[in-house]
């Protein structure tokens, strides 16, 4: 079993909770309240700006050319491709540039991005890329799970299609291979830290959808 297979199995209960989350169930059914999706898409745009920085830092620290290429390309895609998706949703869900610019990151969004930034600043390349992986892999799993049962027509079909696209699956497989390669050269302590980082980032994925579903704000 590869390292990635092990850490994927380790987060099985979290993945089950993600797949069962009402945000995703209602998104698949096309019944998710537009306010919840608007909340998600604005927060996701804040998230992706920071995620792209984490990818750029991973690219800078990657020991191989394959890693530098993959993560620098990912940094570009996070800004260009996913932002284009967001802009299309902003237009159809009535979010103006001004509204997006004035939005503050929620605790879930800031927690996730700050965690990635902290790893990039103070931990190993191995831990950083393990924390980067759920953003690919969890979305790929969600996209593939939702697509066959999604209602049609569905106001969220562009979102579903993006994360069920074969090209997204291929990018996920390439990042997984980089994580496996890093783990195969790492000692026990680093591998344990990588598994922890992967689990924490997967938890943040659940929290991100949950926060959008409840349209969370700061409690004070
Ligand atoms: C929070 C989050 N995680 C993952 C993805 C997919 N790149 C995303 N758009 N947003």
How would you portray this structure in words?
The model has no long low-confidence stretch (mean pLDDT about 95). The radius of gyration is 17 Å and the shape is globular. The chain has helices spanning about 5-10, 10-20, 20-30, 35-60, 65-90, 95-100, 105-120, 125-145, 155-165, 165-185, 190-215. The protein has a single domain (about 5-215), classed as Heme oxygenase-like (Heme Oxygenase, Chain A, Up-down Bundle). The chain is about 80% helix and about 0% strand. The N and C termini lie far apart (about 45 Å). It is an all-alpha fold. The chain is built from 11 helices and no strands. The protein binds 5-(aminomethyl)-2-methylpyrimidin-4-amine.
CATH superfamily: Heme oxygenase-like
| Unreliable runs | none
The CATH topology is given as: Heme Oxygenase, Chain A
Determine the number of helices (DSSP H or I, runs of at least 4 residues): 11
Reading the helices and strands in chain order gives HHHHHHHHHHH
Number of domains: 1
Helix content, binned percent = over 70%
- Distinct ligands, ions and cofactors found in the model: 5-(aminomethyl)-2-methylpyrimidin-4-amine
Number of β-strand runs:
0
The CATH class is identified as Mainly Alpha
Give the biggest beta sheet: none
Overall mean confidence score, pLDDT: 96
Shape: globular
Structural class: mainly alpha
Distance between the termini: 46 Å
Beta content: under 5%
User: Architecture in CATH?
Assistant: Up-down Bundle
Rg from alpha-carbon coordinates: 17 Å
């Amino acid at each position: 079993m590869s390292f990635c297979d092990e850490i994927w199995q380790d987060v099985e209960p979290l993945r089950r909770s993600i797949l069962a989350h009402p945000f995703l169930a209602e998104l698949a059914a096309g019944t998710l309240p537009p306010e919840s999706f608007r909340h998600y898409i604005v927060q996701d745009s804040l998230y992706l700006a920071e995620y792209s920085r984490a990818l750029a830092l991973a690219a800078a620290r990657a020991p191989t050319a394959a890693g530098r290429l993959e993560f620098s390309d990912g940094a570009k895609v996070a800004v260009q491709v996913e932002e284009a998706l967001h802009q299309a949703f902003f237009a159809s869900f009535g979010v103006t540039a001004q509204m997006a610019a004035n939005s503050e990151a929620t605790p879930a969004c800031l927690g996730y991005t700050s965690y990635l930034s902290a790893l990039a600043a103070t931990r190993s390349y191995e831990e950083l890329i393990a924390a980067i992986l759920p953003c690919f892999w969890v979305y790929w799993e969600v996209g593939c799970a939702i697509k066959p049962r999604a209602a049609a027509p569905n106001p969220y079909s562009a979102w579903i299609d993006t994360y069920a696209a074969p090209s997204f699956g291929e990018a996920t497989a390439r990042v997984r291979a980089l994580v496996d390669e890093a783990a195969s050269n790492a000692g026990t302590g680093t591998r344990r830290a990588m598994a922890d980082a992967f689990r924490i980032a997967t938890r943040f994925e659940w929290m991100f959808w949950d926060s959008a579903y409840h349209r969370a704000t700061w409690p004070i």
